[in-house]
Amino acid sequence: MSASSSPSSSLSWSAPTPTPMTTSTSVTETVIGSHLFNISGYSHSKGMAIGQYVKSDTFNAGGHSWVIYFYPNGTEAQDNPTYVSLFIVLASEGTDVRARFELKVLDQSGEERDKVRTQFDSGPYTIRNHGCM
């Protein structure tokens, strides 16, 4: 009689090692700033040529420097002469700036008199270059 041997196999099973849970958080800081650009003698500025401007002092808001350009008779000949144009300009150099703006024209009493339309209503906008309006 012969003894037969069969190969024996042993299977082992182990539970997977749990992967540790990791998390991260991104916090976008919102900074609100304001600047009052007072134009004394506004009626005299209406005599300026189309494309001429008055600019504000440089001011800081949101960690960046800005300047406001005011064109009392618009920037181009086809502009309506009853309109004024305002531009906000990034004066600081560095990285892109993502910002939302609200520019208002107030009368001498500090009240809004006319409807102000702005292209910034749908922002925020990314300003990529120093000097970009």
UniProtKB/TrEMBL annotation:
Any one Gene Ontology BP term: protein ubiquitination
Record InterPro entries: BPM1-6, MATH/TRAF_dom, TRAF-like
Every MATH domain range: 32-133
Region Disordered: start-end pairs: 1-25
Entry protein name: MATH domain-containing protein
